[in-house]
Write the structure tokens for this entry.
Amino acid sequence: MLNFALGPVMSSDLVLEIGSQQTPYFRTPEFSQVNLENEKLMKEMLYADEESRVIFLTGSGTAGMESTVMNVFNEDDKVLIVNGGGFGQRFVDLCKLHNIDCEDIKLDFGSCLTSERLYEYDGKDFTAFLVNICETSSGVHYDLDLISEFCKKNNLLLVVDAVSSFLANDLNMVEHGVDVVITGSQKALACPPGIAIIVLSKNAIKRVEENTCKSMYFDFEDMLINGVRGQTPFTPAITVILQLNVRLNQLKNDGGIEAEIKRISDLAEDFRSKITEFPFEVKSNCLSNSVTTVHSKQKIEANIVEILKNEYDIWVSTARDDLSETMLFRVGHMGDLSPEDNDTLIEALRDMQKRGLF
Ligand SMILES: *Cc1c(COP(=O)(O)O)cnc(C)c1O
């Protein structure tokens, strides 16, 4: 199986090996040490300052999104949300569900966030800004420098869902003035799903402490207190935490976050140059390094995603734009993939073309 889907992704052999072992008991000094080291490594990779804290929450990335909305915001907030696809809409829905006042910047699917659109909201009464910096449904990566400057100017608390962009595009919490970063174990961290990671700045921690969270399981304050000694209130996805530990150490030893961003960016570029031989198009000029959204130049009857999976054992993600009939599939560049793997996918597409499928 060769997996170019957008999470879960291909894991390294070391990570796979841990997955095959018995799950250890977790109320031990050894496991506390693992948690504390994971916190330290995550902070290093995000350039978070000393006072920042990291929460490892057992749940998928959406648990990270929802718990952040529940713990960081309150009824006095007015949140501005970038909404250019499925994940932006999820933040809008979550804020509405939890009675947080919000407004969204609606972008056409696949469009970049321009300064003109953003500054329509300048000088208003917002208190916070929510963005999925890579809107995985379209593959668009929004301009973090632009957003960061806007938030600093308007004194907005900045929450960045970097689930599909951490390790693929630059993110510096201190320089970009980011208060909360949300990511997950199954995207570029290349572990199985199960852990959402939330990194909180001092500012965000203060809000968590002042707010009352109406949930026992999702209570950040409880998690932060337990986290001081490297523990969690409830049983975590222990194996995934052990896998994260190996993976984070591996990343650190292989040149750190910069090396991984470059590797993923090179892999994306390699794929985008190779796909040009087909009647396909890569349309957006603000694509994330983590994903390439491939369009066709004309309507194609064959279900390329299904055929790749069933006949070539290659997995790519479906595309979800209901507006465009020409969109085909999304190819991820995260995880244990190489340029040779790109060649395997290109070879399969060549074969499909020979068969007259497009
Ligand atoms: C994958 C992803 C999530 C999390 O999705 P889950 O299915 O809950 O893990 C959140 N935000 C973005 C931008 C994502 O790509």
